[in-house]
Specification:
Elements: H1 5-59, H2 61-70
Length: 95
């Protein structure tokens, strides 16, 4: 009887080695993808903070006033020129 376990064992070892290498390569590729995505998340968070800051600046009363005067050519109204309407109905009737 001739034993042929040697070639079978070598073929199995080669097959397992190739499987291991393919899995290792796949894991490494996924690691690079994760690193790239984490860097992208960090960049987007920094951009979000910058945009939030810019929104806060744009909404500030001093910025709105400055843009109204420079871009729209609006001028402040003299407070003495503003008159508020008074109630013409008796407050007792509103209850």
């Amino acid at each position: 009887m001739v034993r042929r376990r040697g070639p079978v064992a070598i073929a199995a070892a080669v097959g397992l080695s190739l499987f291991y290498l393919s899995q290792s390569t796949h894991v490494a590729a996924l690691g690079y993808q994760i690193d790239n995505l984490q860097a992208r998340v960090a960049d987007l968070r920094a951009e979000q903070q910058q945009l939030t800051f810019q929104i806060g600046q744009a909404r500030s009363p001093s910025t709105i006033e400055a843009r109204a005067q420079s871009d729209l050519q609006l001028v402040p109204v003299d407070p003495a020129a503003v008159r508020f309407a008074t109630r013409s109905i008796d407050p007792a009737l509103l209850k």
